[in-house]
Amino acid sequence: MVSDSRRVLLVEDNPAHAKLMMRTLREFGEALFIDHVTDGEAALAYLCRDGKGQEPKPLPNLILLDLRIPKFDGLTVLQRIKEDPQLKQIPVVILTTSDAEADVKGATDRFANSYLVKPIEYMQFANLMRHIGTYWTELNHAPRSNN
Fold first, then answer.
1. What residues have CB less than 8 Å from 140, skipping those under 6 apart?
2. Which of 13, 34, 66, 102 is the most interior residue, by most CB within 10 Å?
3. 10 Å Cβ neighbour count for 37?
4. The whole model's pTM is what?
């Protein structure tokens, strides 16, 4: 059984980035459960528990959200999360290639919990993911979910 504080939703459309992110996050042990979706529509369906006939998955305790994703962009997904009374307490970390001021402001205006720019260099990217994993899954204390 996955601990209530160790469930992550990764919203990332770049397969190479997703693979690296999941591999480095899994360094925190098999108890860390990662669900991966590749677009905004799938993220909202997951979070709104639209299992399309399947048993809905428990809500994540952390969302790693790219801004440049298909169907609904990351800012739209973030806004819907933070407007929903059942989802707004979930920490959302924006993890994107954009360092544009408009994106940073858009994310903070929509109450992102953190905004991180993906480094281009592989080792820096892997190191960033290790820090994210340590902080959000081991050090950060969040309210217990009622899923």
1. 91
2. 66
3. 19
4. 0.89
- SS3 for the chain is CCCCCCEEEEECCCHHHHHHHHHHHHHHCCCCEEEEECCHHHHHHHHCCCCCCCCCCCCCCEEEECCCCCCCCHHHHHHHHHHCCCCCCCCEEEEECCCCHHHHHHHHHCCCCEEEECCCCHHHHHHHHHHHHHHHHHHCCCCCCCC
| 121: its two tokens | 């260099």
**pLDDT tens sequence across 126-140:** 899 888 888 887 788
For residue 31, give both structure tokens.
């108890």
Arithmetic mean of pLDDT over the chain = 87
